[in-house]
Specification:
- This protein is an alpha/beta fold and 248 residues long.
- It is 40% helix and 15% strand.
- The chain contains 10 helices and 6 strands; from the N terminus they run H-H-E-H-E-H-E-H-E-H-H-E-H-H-E-H.
- The protein has a 6-stranded parallel sheet, with helices on both faces.
- Strand 3, helix 5 and strand 4 form a beta-alpha-beta unit.
- Helix 4 packs across helix 5.
- It is globular, with a radius of gyration of 24 Å.
Length: 248
């Protein structure tokens, strides 16, 4: 004899099961689970990954998977920093990814990305936002680079950032990737600013932050050391990563 009293319970269980499947289905949460992309953060000279933490949190909140790399910027030349520290850290963070990696850099970090593009083409570069990059070098290095105190503070990489034709920034060529540059026009180091012709951020002139091949360029009222922590700069960085342009 059939027990018809159990059928409603069975139907309820089946309905509940389908409901749970629809809720837990990857399609139901695809937008939340899908990463907006992979982003590598590279700090500047004589700084640490901690200086890029707030930028990393901003991008992570927007759905990006962030790799904030700490590298010994004061201890090695740019070529060695790139090949011996940055490349292995990228591989540890993301493995052998097939999709291009985006980059957000401060100061020296931008030159390291350019070095990557030239010497490590196995790493595919997507969109890049450089903050206060010495893309054509800095006159500060030209005038103070031979001082012992300068080398003690900035190391061998710092001495490579001059404006001469044989300086690393002027040997790496134009951008071969989608590039947006944000630089500042305020300084908290008026002594260094007297060494730099034209408007500057205390370390790099606006003119020397530019690079042939860039897609967009933005000047903000910020200083070299703190530009990466500014809310407007972080919003503009995200906008470029998403759209390939700044919001003017």
């Amino acid at each position: 004899m059939k027990n018809y009293n159990r059928l409603p319970n069975c139907g309820w269980l089946m309905a509940f099961g389908w409901l749970m499947l629809s809720i837990s289905s990857p399609l139901a949460h695809s937008k939340e689970q899908e990463s907006a992309g992979n982003v590598v953060l590279l700090h500047g000279l004589a700084r640490t990954a901690g200086s890029m933490d707030s930028m990393g949190k901003h991008l992570n909140k927007a759905g990006y998977k962030v790799c904030n790399i700490d590298y010994p910027s004061r201890k090695h030349r740019i070529e060695n920093l790139t090949s011996e520290f940055v490349v292995p850290e990228i591989q540890q963070c993301f493995g052998d990814v097939l999709t291009p990696l985006h980059f957000v850099t401060h100061s020296l970090g931008g030159i390291i990305v350019r070095q990557l593009a030239v010497e490590h083409q196995q790493i595919k570069i997507g969109r890049v936002v450089m903050l206060s990059p010495p893309n054509q070098g800095s006159e500060v290095v030209d005038k103070l680079g031979t001082w012992g105190l300068f080398e003690w503070i900035n190391g061998p990489a710092g001495k490579q950032l001059g404006t001469t034709e044989d300086a690393i920034p002027n040997q790496l060529g134009p951008a071969t990737f989608e590039l947006g540059i944000i630089t500042g026009n305020r300084s908290i180091n008026l002594i260094l600013s007297t060494l730099i012709p034209g408007p500057d951020d205390g370390k790099v002139s606006i003119k020397n932050a530019r690079l042939d091949g860039m897609q967009d360029f933005l000047v903000v009222e910020q200083t070299h050391p703190f530009i990466m922590a500014n809310d407007t700069v972080q919003s503009q960085t995200l906008h470029f990563l998403q759209n390939g342009t700044f919001q003017h």
